[in-house]
Write a sequence for this structure.
């Protein structure tokens, strides 16, 4: 079976990487801990590893509901623990009376330090509590160098993973009709925007398809895809139910409230 046929062309390189991880575990009988993966990458890892007799896989990102997680590939005779995922949780101390910190502020602060996205997981903003998870090997560097966020002085406190806040999203399901399965058509109908406006936003890099920025309005959507449009929300294409008599597509989407 050609495993590539189930995935987009741009995902083939990642599939090759997962195959190499699996090969290392099989040949060297050792653990393989991956970088942080988005949910789409996690799905690919599950598919590629499958029910392989010689390799098992587990995921952990600090708490069960974490979105970004590290994968651990291991021989079946090993029982992994949370410590094997090498995660560090930081809580941000900042002047809460004078500044409001948002997700993008923390993301920008980490990236400005030269930290690659694959080295840190979820950023959690719950009320005035700000937390984020990093790979333990870079934790000392991050703690020493992250001294400001959004022009406010901050300090980091390491906390046990058991104290990681959980922010559960609420989704609502809706059946809509679209003229095509193009990204611009699906986003426009889901968020009740004009297609021309959505096309402009996509071309400006405001849209993501399966957690990757896409600047082509004509990108085709498939069942299971997660789409997002900055400042408007996220939606998941649950089901492509078929075409109507007028040759439009009837689809079922879930979107964040």
């Amino acid at each position: 079976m050609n495993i590539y046929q189930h995935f987009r062309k741009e995902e083939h390189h990642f599939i090759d990487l997962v195959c190499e991880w699996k090969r290392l575990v099989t040949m060297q009988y050792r653990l393989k801990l991956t970088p942080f993966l988005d949910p789409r990458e996690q799905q690919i890892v599950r598919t590629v590893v499958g029910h392989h007799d010689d390799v098992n896989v587990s995921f952990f990102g600090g708490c069960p509901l974490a979105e970004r997680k590290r994968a651990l590939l291991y021989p079946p005779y090993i029982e992994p623990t949370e410590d094997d995922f090498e995660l560090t949780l930081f809580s941000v101390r900042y002047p809460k009376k004078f500044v409001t910190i948002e997700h993008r502020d923390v993301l920008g602060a980490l990236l400005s330090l030269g930290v690659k996205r694959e080295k840190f997981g979820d950023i959690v903003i719950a009320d005035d509590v700000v937390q984020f998870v990093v790979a333990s090997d870079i934790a000392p560097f991050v703690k020493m160098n992250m001294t400001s966020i959004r022009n406010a002085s901050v300090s980091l406190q390491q906390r046990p993973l058991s104290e990681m806040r959980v922010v559960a999203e609420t989704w609502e399901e809706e059946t809509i009709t679209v003229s095509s399965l193009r990204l611009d058509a699906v986003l426009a109908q889901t968020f009740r925007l004009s297609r021309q406006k959505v096309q402009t936003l996509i071309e400006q890099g405001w849209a993501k398809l399966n957690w990757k920025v896409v600047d082509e309005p004509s990108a085709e959507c498939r069942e299971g895809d997660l789409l997002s449009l900055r400042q408007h929300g996220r939606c998941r294409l649950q089901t492509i139910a078929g075409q109507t008599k007028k040759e439009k597509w009837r689809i079922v989407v879930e979107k964040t409230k």
Remarks:
- The radius of gyration is 20 Å.
